[in-house]
Design brief:
Distance between the termini of chain A: 166 Å
GO biological process, one term (chain B): signal transduction
Region (Disordered) (chain B): 179-201
Number of helices of chain A: 29
Strand order of the largest sheet of chain B: 2-3-1-4-5-6
Shape of chain B: globular
Order of helices and strands of chain B: EHEEHEHEHEHH
Structural class of chain A: alpha+beta
Radius of gyration of chain A: 70 Å
Largest sheet of chain B: 6 strands, mixed
Strand order of the largest sheet of chain A: 4-3-2-1-7-6-5-8
Oligomer: heterodimer
Organism (chain B): Ceratosolen solmsi marchali
Shape of chain A: elongated
Structural class of chain B: alpha/beta
Protein name (chain B): small monomeric GTPase
Strand content of chain B: 15-25%
Bound molecules: guanosine-5'-triphosphate, magnesium ion
Number of strands of chain A: 8
EC number (chain B): 3.6.5.2
Helix content of chain A: 55-70%
Chain lengths: 906, 201
């Protein structure tokens, strides 16, 4: 390696005054063959210029050549990859990758690069290179063979540069030669030269020691200076400690002051709060003198409004929620006592006045209202749009009373809050007095309703020119009621011979409608009044009331049913679950309202039921009218849970029962029908009556949602009638059962076709079928009559054939010999046949009733059957007695002539 | 027997005649029950009765709906005999049914022995104009020849349905009034006269 270095120096660097500082044999990374040398070089002329050369030899023998050259300061990064690696990367204008051939050489090269670059203003960064390589001391490895040259600054500058041999530069050479000149004897006298040199050296040593000794007092001076500084510092420190201590004490004091301050603050606030509370309590518990005076001296009804204001104040004071413990204050207790006294005053005043007012209104005003109302038209009563003017009688309202009481609503509320007991008592008085007043009103009202019914009926049925003056109406009908009551109830049964339903359906309906539509506003008005006046909804807070309303509005669209009439038309779905709580609350309120209403209208239900029972005597179809009308009113009621709705609903249940009973009666009467004893059975009464019955019922139920009840009964009735027709058909002693069935089913089919009741469509078809069956049965039973023996004979023939006897061998049978045939045929000469047919025609005529007009139908059928029979017999003769030459004694032509003759003889 | 309060009520007996499928039953059912039956179900014989108000007077009408197909014409004699007036129906969509009216007419006249028996020629199915086979002129010609009214009806649209029944009832009624007057006066003469006329024809 040294040789290479030497060669390189000599061949290419010396020429340019450059000196190799370090060298490294490298190959291009991964291309072992292309080897070259990296040389760290310093320029001799310009100091501190270091270059890195890449030097190459193209082949073994040729000369070295500089390939590339970079200034050391241009190298940005020198990357050793890692300690064990042989690679080396230089980042300059681009990244140059090499791998070295000798790790020691690599280490030296990198170390030299580092050492040299240390002096540069801009030096490369060393990466991935072990720390210990990058120290200047590591230069110990560097050989020091050239340091012997001593004084030359150039050499001193780079004593560390590796290399065993350093050629003498020109300057060194001149220096050395000048030295040698001075000691021209050196060559000749080495000893003298040595002496001179060592003398010089000792002089230099002495000088050195001397200068060292001269610097001692200065050191001493420095030491004393330092000592002084230390002393000064400790002085300052001591002072600082003093200050610190002082500050510490002050902090404690400050803390204490802070705590005290806080406590004072709290005390202040508490005092303020206490004061505020006291102020509130005092102001709240105080009723102003003015109000006290009013409470003490007010008179009703004059001071109503003042009393309301004062009462509200009092209530506020009494119901003020005292802070815990404050009620133990004797001043508060005292004030409470005073307030209590005021409360008693208020309660006494209000309760006494209202009590008297209720009784007064109940007795005096109520009396006049009741009396005048029957004759004087109340303008504000909602008149039902009843077409029948005569039945437009009125139920008196309590509007006057309610108007009178309304201003006291607020006082009632106060009383309830202030004196629950007095309030309850007062409520009782109200319900009782109003109850008896309504009882009286209802009595008049319902009596009036009954009178309307009776008067018309009497006029109608007895042609009795009754005085219709209303004043006499109160007295006169008493007697009439008796007659009506004793007269037979106009129940008209389907089994009756004559269908004569009695009564005044339209009148009944209009009176009933009038009654129901008048009850509604009166009861609802009273209910609304009571809810506000008696505060029945008081335990519903305002907010829940709003919610309730919303929930109600939501559910009202889906639940149109009436919960009061559950047992007749299924419960309405109780809305969504989220309003369940609300409805529960509402139900509670409703219950209270209902209870109050029941106390105020004690007689309503009985009166209504009495009227309905009374209606029974007015019209045969009364229960249908009641069912339809009541149901309509129950359905249209907005307030389904109200007392009135429930009363109506229970009446509706009664009506439904009555209706069912009525229909049951009709059904039973069908079964119980007695068959007439006349010559012909004809149309059974229930079949005959059903047409009018159904027409009437259809008329009553048209547009009613109760129609389904009627339709259920239709099917039951028709089914019963089918059964009854069949069983009754056998009971008539003259008319054959087939005829009874034929005529009645024919009639029923006609009726059902006319009525077009859709639920009975199936029964209509069934009736037609039963009619046709009966017709066929009738014809089959009678057509054989005129040729009885012939028929009998050939029935036998047919039976034999059916049993397997050959047709050609029939004539060998004893009973069916030609002889026999001839004998039977002889019995039916044309004359006889005609007589037989005529006889049959007369018989049929006798069986059939005129109304049903089936003679032609039956006779046509009989003619057809007779001809068919004739043809059948002729055929049998042809087949079974082919050579006998026997024929019937009459021809088809004869038969047709007989038919024409029979026709012409009528 | 107070059962029928209208025992004195007039009763007019009408017979429906004509070939099968021309709409006799359809006309009858439309008149009776205001319904039209689309399905064809051949009739044997059916009897109907209805209360109607004829010119302000409540009367009853008996309708005998007969079979269009009958193996033996003589079978008809009996009910022709019972009829007081006839609706002789054909379908304007079927020429055969029109031709058949001739035979019906002859049989009725023979059985009733009365040239002036109340009788209407009815061309049914007038709603089916596009299928018309029998012209109006043709039908009118025949009705004039017979001296009877001709009316076109539709059992489907109810056109003229009431009219044919009511017109016929009016004829029956006026015939009855005539007969009554005749029998009160020179009734026997009249009857004889009629018979003679028939024989001459
Ligand atoms: N478009 C139309 N169809 C009709 C009319 N009248 C009857 N029809 C139809 O014609 C067919 C026969 O009607 P029917 O009334 O049964 O005839 P018919 O004369 O009673 O027949 P038979 O009982 O066999 O003598 C049915 O399908 C009816 O729907 C009509 O005016 N217009
Ligand atoms: Mg028919």
């Amino acid at each position: 390696m040294a040789a290479t270095r030497h060669t390189l120096q000599r061949e290419i660097f010396t020429v340019n005054d450059e000196k190799i500082l370090s060298i490294c044999h490298v190959c291009k990374a991964y291309k072992k063959k292309k080897s070259s040398f990296l040389c760290l070089v310093s320029a001799t002329d310009t100091p501190e210029t270091f270059m890195v050369y890449q030097v190459k030899r193209n082949n073994d023998k040729s000369a070295f050549k500089k390939k590339q050259c970079w200034l050391l300061s241009d190298i940005r990064i020198i990357d050793g990859i890692n300690a064990d690696s042989m690679d080396l990367e230089l980042h300059i204008d681009k990244i140059y990758k090499w791998s070295t051939t000798n790790s020691q050489e690599r280490r030296n090269f990198i170390n030299n690069l580092y050492t040299v670059s240390c002096g540069l203003p801009q030096r490369p960064e060393f990466k991935n290179i072990p720390k210990e390589w990058l120290t200047a001391e590591s230069s110990s490895i560097v050989s020091n063979d050239n340091s012997t040259m001593g004084y030359n600054s150039d050499f001193l500058q780079s004593p560390l540069i590796a290399g065993e041999y350093q050629p003498i530069t020109n300057k060194e050479a001149t220096d050395l030669s000048s030295l040698m000149e001075n000691c021209y004897y050196a060559v000749s006298n080495a000893e003298l030269f040595m002496d001179t040199l060592s003398k010089d050296l000792s002089i230099l040593d002495g000088e050195n020691i001397q200068s060292v000794l001269a610097s001692e007092p200065q050191v001493l001076q420095l030491m004393s200076g330092i000592e002084a500084a230390i002393n000064e510092a400790s002085l300052v420190e001591a002072q600082l400690t003093v200050y610190d201590e002082a500050l510490g004490r002050i902090r404690e004091a400050m803390e204490r002051v802070g705590q005290k301050n806080h406590a004072i603050h709290i005390a202040n606030r508490n005092a303020k709060l206490l004061l505020e509370q006291l102020e509130v309590v005092i102001t709240q518990l105080t009723v102003s003198n003015e109000h006290q005076r009013i409470l003490n001296e007010a008179e009703l009804p004059g001071h109503k409004n003042e009393l309301i204001v004062a009462g509200t104040e009092l209530l506020k004071a009494i119901s003020f929620p005292l802070p815990l413990g404050l009620d133990k204050l004797s001043a508060v207790a005292e004030q409470k006592k005073r307030l209590d006294k005021l409360r008693a005053k208020f309660s006494l005043l209000v309760a006494r006045h209202l009590n008297n007012l209720f009784i007064h209104l109940g007795n005096d005003i109520g009396e006049t209202i009741a009396l005048t109302n029957t004759t004087v038209q109340q303008p504000n009563v909602i008149t039902s749009s009843s077409t029948n003017q005569k039945s437009d009688f009125k139920l008196s309202t309590h509007q006057v009373i309610q108007k009178e009481l309304e201003p006291y609503t607020e006082l009632m509320k106060l009383l309830q809050a202030l004196d629950q007991k007095a309030f309850t008592q007062l409520t009782k008085v109200y319900t009782k007095t109003m109850g008896s007043l309504y009882q009286r009103n209802f009595k008049f009202f319902f009596e009036e309703a009954k009178d309307r019914l009776i008067i018309r009926r009497l006029q109608h049925h007895q042609h009795h020119s009754h005085s219709t003056s209303k004043s006499s109406g109160n007295v006169a009908p008493k007697a009439d009621t008796e007659t009506i009551n004793s007269s037979s109830p106009p129940v008209c049964l389907l089994s009756n011979e004559v269908w004569s339903p009695q009564g005044e359906g339209a009148l009944l309906d209009s009176v009933l409608d009038n009654v129901l539509s008048q009850l509604q506003p009166v009861c609802l008005a009273e209910q609304a009044f009571c809810i506000t006046f008696l505060h029945l909804d008081s335990f519903l807070s305002a907010s829940t009331k709003v919610n309730l309303q919303v929930a109600k509005d939501e559910s009202s669209s889906c639940s149109s049913g009436n919960s009061g009439a559950d047992d007749i038309h299924g419960l309405a779905s109780p809305g969504s679950t989220n309003i369940n709580d609300l409805t529960k609350l509402e139900r509670q309120v409703n219950e209270q309202v209902r209870a109050t209403m029941a106390a105020i209208f004690p007689s309503l239900e009985t009166e209504l039921n009495n009227l309905i029972t009374f209606l029974e005597k007015i019209d045969s179809f009364w229960c249908m009218y009641v069912l339809v009308r009541l149901s309509q009113h129950v359905m249209s009621a907005q307030d389904t849970g109200s007392f009135l709705s429930m009363t109506f609903a229970s009446a509706l249940v009664q009506a439904k029962r009555a209706f069912d009973k009525f229909m049951q009666m009709q059904q039973q009467s069908v079964l119980d029908t007695k068959i007439n004893r006349r010559n012909k059975c004809g149309i059974l009464p229930y079949v005959e009556n059903f047409g009018l019955f159904a027409k009437t019922a259809e008329n009553i139920f048209k547009n009613s949602d109760r129609k389904i009840d009627l339709e259920k009964w239709y099917t039951k009735l028709i089914a019963t009638m089918f059964e009854a027709i069949i069983s009754h058909s056998t009971e008539h002693h003259k008319t054959p059962p087939e005829v009874v069935k034929m005529e009645n089913f024919h009639h029923l089919h006609d009726l059902l076709s006319q009525l077009k009741i859709s639920v009975l469509d199936h029964q209509r078809k069934e009736a037609k079928q039963k009619y046709q069956e009966a017709l066929k049965a009738y014809v089959t039973r009678y057509f054989g009559r005129p040729l009885e023996k012939l028929n009998f004979f050939f029935d036998g023939v047919q039976a034999k054939v059916g049993a397997g006897v050959k047709e050609s061998e029939i004539s060998y049978q004893m009973a069916f010999s030609r002889q026999e045939l001839r004998r039977v045929v002889k019995e039916y000469p044309a004359r006889e046949v005609k007589k037989g047919l005529e006889h049959l025609y007369r018989k049929v005529e006798k069986h059939l009733c005129e109304e049903e007009n089936l003679l032609q139908v039956v006779w046509r059928e009989m003619q057809g059957e007779f001809i068919a029979q004739y043809i059948n017999i002729e055929e049998l003769i042809q087949r079974c007695y082919p050579d006998s030459n026997v024929t019937l004694e009459f021809t088809i032509q004869n038969i047709l002539e007989f038919f024409s003759e029979i026709a012409l003889s009528h | 027997m107070s059962k029928k309060p209208g025992a004195a009520q007039a009763l007019h007996k009408v017979i429906m005649v004509g070939s099968g499928g021309v709409g006799k039953s359809a006309l009858t059912l439309q008149f009776m029950y205001d319904e039209f039956v689309q399905d064809y179900e051949p009739t044997k014989a059916d009897s109907y009765r209805k209360k109607v108000v004829l010119d302000g007077e409540e009367v009853q009408i008996d309708i005998l709906d007969t079979a269009g197909q009958e193996d033996y014409a003589a079978i008809r004699d009996n009910y022709f005999r019972s009829g007081e007036g006839f609706l002789c129906v054909f379908s304007i969509t079927e020429d055969d049914s029109f031709q058949a009216t001739q035979e019906f007419r002859e049989q009725i006249l023979r059985v009733k022995n009365d040239e002036n028996i109340p009788f209407l020629l009815v061309g049914n199915k007038s709603d089916l104009q596009e299928k018309r086979k029998v012209s109006l002129a043709e039908a009118q010609g025949r009705s004039q020849q017979w001296g009877v009214p001709y009316v076109e009806t539709s059992a489907k649209t109810r056109e003229n349905v009431d009219k044919v029944f009511f017109d016929l009832m009016r004829e029956i009624r006026s015939r009855k009034i005539e007969d009554k007057a005749a029998s009160n006066g020179r009734g026997k003469d009249r009857a004889k006269r009629k018979k003679k006329k028939c024989i001459i024809l």
